[in-house]
Amino acid sequence: MWNPNMNNNIFNESKKNFQKNVKKTAKGVKKVVIIVAAGVAAVFIVSGSFYQIQEQEQAVLTTLGKPKAVTETGLHFKIPGIQQVKKVNTTIQGFPIGYTIENNQTVDTEGIMITSDYNFINVDFFVEYRIAEPVQYLYASQRPEDILKSISQSCIRTVIGSYKVDDVLTTGKSEIQAKIKEMIITKIEEQNLGLQLVNITIQDSAPPTQEVMQAFKAVETAKQGKETAINNANKYRNEKTPEADAKVDQIIKDAQAQKQTRINEATAQTSRFKAMYEEYQKNPVVTKQRMFYETMESVLPGLKIVIDSGNGVQKVLPLAPFSENDTSADNGQKPEKDDTQETDAPKENKTNNAENPTAETTNPETPQTDAQ
């Protein structure tokens, strides 16, 4: 027989058991959630407590708003929620001025400038920099790269405006780059950007139009021709200068040797004259006779002496031509024969010999001589 009270008791009992099971399950789930949350929190705390700095990085550790630079590489600790870390890349970076890197297009507003001689020129630059002070870079100014670019453009235009167009296109590039770099470094330090300028280089410099470019090329060609001519002249000079110097040295040495020879000869003659003068003062007559005899000894051996025959003609060999016949003979002409002279000459000689038998003898006391 069916009893309604019994069914109610069974239902109530099942309900109570279900509620107990639900409570037990809820407590278990709550424990699991707590454990998972604790694990996640632990992982978050552990992972947020350490940070890694690579070789080309520096970090800024901020503790309650106060920044501090961290430059050492490796693993570092921080307090989560209290300390924050910002990393910066310290590798060399760069940007162009006057053109774009992506499509290599000219930016006229940046590249076209005016020189000191009022010529327009298009100059492209590339600026290289790196982050040197992370704290200043992050907190001293906003967008420091844009500030650096503005400073670079200002310095470039200032320096280019102080040079002539020929210097910008040719020989003055190195000097221009050095001045621009020095000016940019000074302004970066004044602005406290935290950046360090590594280098700035002129990538290209050219006139703004094709016509002007052709004119500048013609001028450059003329300058190169001038340099070539100068180099050739210097080469010729370098080749000829040693030879000329050697000749000059030889002439100087010969002149010095000749001078010394003349001095020695003059000194010797002076010494002989002084010695002779001293002897003359002691014995004037003897010295005169000795000088006369010494002079005759040196002069007479080279002379030919002919004694005068007394006919009024002095004959000293070698004789100069005195007669007409002798003159014609000397000129290569055969003299004409004179029968009268050939006939009379022996008679005259015989007469002279008869009148002066001693005419051909030499008088040692008074010889008649004529030296040529």
Descriptive overview:
The protein has 372 residues and is of the alpha+beta class. It folds into four domains: 20-64 and 72-85, no CATH class; 92-208, Band 7 domain (Tetrahydropterin Synthase, Chain A, 2-Layer Sandwich), CATH 3.30.479.30; 226-303; 304-355, no CATH class. Helices cover 56% and strands 16% of the residues. The chain contains ten helices and nine strands. The strands form three sheets. Strands 6, 7, 8 and 9 form a four-stranded antiparallel beta sheet that branches. Strands 3-2-5 form a three-stranded antiparallel beta sheet, with no helix packed on it. A two-stranded antiparallel ribbon has the order 1-4. Strand 2 (57-63) and strand 3 (66-70) form a beta hairpin. It is elongated. The termini are far apart.
How does the SSE layout of this entry go?
Layout (H helix, E strand, L loop, with lengths): L3 H45 L1 E4 L3 E7 L2 E5 L3 E4 L5 E7 L3 E5 L10 H4 E3 L5 E12 L2 H6 L4 H17 L4 H5 L3 H19 L3 E12 L3 H73 L1 H16 L24 H7 L8 H17 L17
Antiparallel strand pairs: 1-4, 2-3, 2-5, 6-8, 7-8, 8-9
Helix pairs in contact: 4-6, 7-8
Q: Spell out the helices and strands N to C.
A: HEEEEEEHEEHHHHEHHHH
For the sheet with most strands, the description reads: 4 strands, antiparallel
The CATH architecture classification of the largest domain is 2-Layer Sandwich
Which class of secondary structure composition applies to the elements? alpha+beta
**Residue-averaged pLDDT:** 76
Please count the beta strands (DSSP E, at least 2 residues each). 9
Shape category: elongated
Helix content: 55-70%
Cα-atom radius of gyration? 63 Å
**CATH topology of the largest domain, which one?**
Tetrahydropterin Synthase, Chain A
Q: What's the number of domains?
A: 4
Number of helices: 10
The CATH C-level name of the largest domain is Alpha Beta
Residue ranges: pLDDT <50 for 5 or more in a row? 317-372
CATH superfamily membership of the largest domain: Band 7 domain
Termini Cα gap: 201 Å
State which percent range the strand residues make up: 15-25%
